[in-house]
């Protein structure tokens, strides 16, 4: 295959991953990084791929947030976001102090346990407490820096607190927007892509969000919530497998 063919394949690969990730994010409220990250890393490599996930994840959340900002539950998001931002500091220290693969395995186990326990406490009074929201935000922020996965802990909180899926999918965009920008700033750089790759990524993102806008109202909340749980568990299992393979 010649250089033009390789370049075209790279553009199409990136665009396809971004399209699926953006539409998933709009429909279920989360999943851009979990869906698109493996493919972006495969095409660009770990460093550039993760930075592109952070950047495009922020852009995707921003585009969705701009459409629905009047419906966002700001107080609820703020309770989650403040501890999440604070926990990025110790998370950054732990990420440098502990072995990466071992940390991935530990965190993935924590995520699976958190998701499982969220089903057990959803009918208890603590499921509606602010302390649970603070804890979920703290765990999510810690995981965002240490493992690049912030969604599963928030998904667990949404289940436990019985946060209606439609409101969750809208409100959580502000949360992911701020955390994605924070992660990108912590890395101190920007991904280096050809202009055709940038164009393909952003075009695919817009089309994916438009498709999500069309599909989101047509998909029953129980299926969207089930999809969120499936994405969260899949992300945790993938993180665990990658950690074991790297050990």
Number of strands: 0
The H-and-E topology, N to C, reads as HHHHHHHHHH
How would you describe the shape? Answer: globular
Radius of gyration: 17 Å
Structural class of the helices, strands and pairings? mainly alpha
Pfam families: TauE (PF01925)
Keywords: Cell membrane, Membrane, Transmembrane, Transmembrane helix, Transport
Subcellular location: Cell membrane
Membrane topology: Multi-pass membrane protein
How does this structure look, described?
The chain is mainly alpha-helical and 247 residues long. The chain has one domain (3-246). Helices cover 83% and strands 0% of the residues. It has ten helices and no strands. It has helices at residues 3-28, 32-44, 46-68, 74-97, 100-121, 130-146, 151-160, 165-187, 195-215, 221-246. Helix 5 packs parallel to helix 7. The protein is globular, with a radius of gyration of 17 Å.
Task: Offer a quick outline of the entry.
The protein has helices spanning 3-28, 32-44, 46-68, 74-97, 100-121, 130-146, 151-160, 165-187, 195-215, 221-246. The protein is mainly alpha-helical.
What key attributes describe this structure?
single chain, globular, cell membrane, Probable membrane transporter protein, mainly alpha, transmembrane helix, 10 helices
Strand and helix map with partners:
Blueprint: H1 3-28, H2 32-44, H3 46-68, H4 74-97, H5 100-121, H6 130-146, H7 151-160, H8 165-187, H9 195-215, H10 221-246
Helix pairs in contact: 1-2, 1-3, 1-8, 1-9, 2-3, 3-8, 3-9, 4-6, 4-8, 5-7, 5-10, 6-7, 7-10
């Amino acid at each position: 295959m010649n250089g033009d063919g390789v370049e075209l394949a790279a553009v199409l690969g990136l665009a396809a991953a971004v399209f699926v990730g953006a539409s998933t994010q709009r429909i279920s409220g989360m999943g851009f990084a979990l869906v698109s990250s493996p493919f972006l890393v495969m095409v660009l490599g770990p460093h550039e791929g993760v930075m592109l996930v952070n950047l495009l994840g922020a852009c995707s959340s921003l585009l969705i947030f701009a459409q629905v900002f009047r419906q966002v539950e700001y107080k609820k998001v703020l309770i989650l976001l403040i501890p999440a931002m604070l926990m990025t500091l110790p998370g950054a220290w732990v990420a440098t102090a502990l072995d990466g693969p071992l940390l991935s395995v530990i965190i993935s186990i924590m995520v699976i346990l958190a998701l499982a326990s969220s089903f057990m406490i959803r009918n208890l009074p603590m499921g509606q407490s602010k302390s649970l929201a603070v804890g979920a935000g703290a765990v999510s922020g810690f995981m965002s820096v240490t493992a690049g996965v912030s969604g599963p802990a928030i998904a667990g909180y949404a289940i436990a607190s019985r946060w209606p899926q439609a409101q969750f999918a809208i409100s959580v965009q502000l949360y992911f927007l701020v955390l994605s920008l924070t992660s990108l700033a912590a890395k101190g750089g920007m991904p280096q892509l050809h202009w055709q790759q940038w164009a393909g990524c952003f075009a695919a993102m817009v089309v994916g969000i438009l498709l999500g806008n069309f599909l989101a109202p047509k998909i029953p909340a129980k299926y969207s919530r089930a999809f969120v749980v499936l994405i969260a568990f899949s992300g945790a299992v993938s993180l665990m497998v990658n950690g074991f393979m790297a050990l």
